[in-house]
Every structure is written in structure tokens, then in C-alpha cells.
Amino acid sequence: MAAPPTPSQAEGLSATDEKRHRFYACELIQEAGILLQLPQVVLATAQSLLHRFYARQSLFDFDAFRAAMGCIFLASKAEEQPRRVKDIVQVFFRMRNRRMGLGLSLLMPSDPRFATWSDWLVMVERQVLIEVGFSIDGTTEHPHKFLLYYIKLLECSDACAQQAWNYVNDSFRLDLCLRYDAHVIACAAISLAARVLQHVLPLGWEELLEVDVPDVISVAR
Predict the structure, then answer these.
(1) Where are the domains of the chain?
(2) How many C-beta atoms surround the C-beta of residue 45 within 10 A?
(3) How many other CB atoms sit within 10 Å of the CB of residue 206?
(4) Helix axes 112-131, 85-99, angle to 10 degrees
(5) What homologous superfamily does CATH list for 7-132?
């Protein structure tokens, strides 16, 4: 059975274009996270929030750039790594200017645009909270912790572990976190990494980790 259309698709945006916009927002979160010196868990939470948000709201009402700002702001608080409004505004302002070829000038608090950007940030953060029902419990359990445990249990090579870690990070650019449990995504990342690197996993490893093979295949596809 086909999945019901998202709010953006219901308003005429193609699934391909929506995926492109979400991908762009996730790239912004990753880049901003590096500039803000945030740990990966914050970025994973921010991207999970983004996908949950767009499951209920349309890109026509909330563009990807501002949604990325709001999600990383909220995620930094949720993961107890808060960043100031000023810092997030400055980082996203610089990122936008660089993409537009406008240089890397700062947005000073005395500039009227600073208040506008700050208002955007707080407004989108509030809207994200509303759409997730003021509960972020479903966005803070990530595949990373399962991956670390499974890698040791299966005695995977360092190369396989690194490749699987990269796949887990990349998985947040898609809405897999809405459709599969975190441990399934971790298993799929290990399976894909092992296949690419020709690393042999123990026989029956799926049963050992209590994961359904069809789900692993679907995620890794």
C-alpha cells in the first residue's frame, strides 16, 4: 500500500522535489552543527525533528532553511547542548550569504535584520514543538548507540565500523527514522557496510540481534 501524501505533496510538490528540499535542510543542519561545534547526537535529533515536522507541515508554509534553523535550535536544548539565538542566527546568516556569493559578513544585533532572523528562529522552534506534540521522546533514540554495541558484538573491522557509522549519519537525510526503529537502521548500516567492504558477518547475526531480515533489506536498499 502506498504511503499517504505528505502535506507538501498534497499541495502539489512532487515526492522528488520534497526529498530534495529535505536533503538540503539536512545538509544545512550538518554544516551548522560543525560551525556550532555540536555533537553528532544533536544533529541526528535535529534531522529527526525536521522529518517529523514535515510529516505534518508543508514546505510551502515553512521553507527548508528556516525549518533547519528551528530544528537545530530545539535539538541543542533537548540534548543539553544549548546554543544562543545569536550564535545560530550568525551561523545561518553566514551560510546563506556564502551560498549567495555575498561574503561572510556578520549580522550585528544592531542591524534590523537581526531581530527578524531571531523572530523566525523562535517562531519555527515553537511551531516544531507544536507539531511534535511538545514531546521529543521519539526523536532522541538514534541508531548510533545500537551500532556501537552491535559492532563490538559482531567483531566488525574498524573499516566496517566507520563505513556503517557513515551510513547511519547519511540515513537521517531520508525519513527512515519515521518508518523504522533505530536498531533496524543500525543493522542495515552494518549489513550494507559489510557487503561493500566484503566483510563476512557471523552466520545468523540477524537472529542474534533480533531484527527482521526483510526490514534490514528494505532499509539498506
Answers:
(1) 7-132, 143-220
(2) 28
(3) 16
(4) 110
(5) Cyclin-like (1.10.472.10)
Give the whole-angstrom CA distance, residue 148 versus residue 99: 35
pTM of the model: 0.89
Dist. CA 114–CA 106, nearest whole Å: 10
Are the C-beta atoms of residues 28 and 95 closer than 8 Å to each other?
yes
Q: How confident is the model at residue 128 (pLDDT cuts 50, 70, 90)?
A: very high
CA distance 191 to 188: 5
In tens, the pLDDT along 195-212 reads: 999 989 998 899 999 999
Tell me which residue has cell 549489513. 191
Taking alpha carbons only, the member of 210, 216, 142, 209 closest to residue 182 is 142
Look-up of cell digits 522552534: 125
Identical fold between 7-132 and 143-220: yes
Query: What is the CATH architecture assignment of 143-220?
Result: Orthogonal Bundle (1.10)
CA dihedral (15, 20, 22, 24) in degrees, to 10, reads -170
Query: What mean pLDDT comes out for the span 157-167?
Result: 94
Cα separations (Å) of 12 from 1, 59, 65, 68? 21, 11, 20, 22
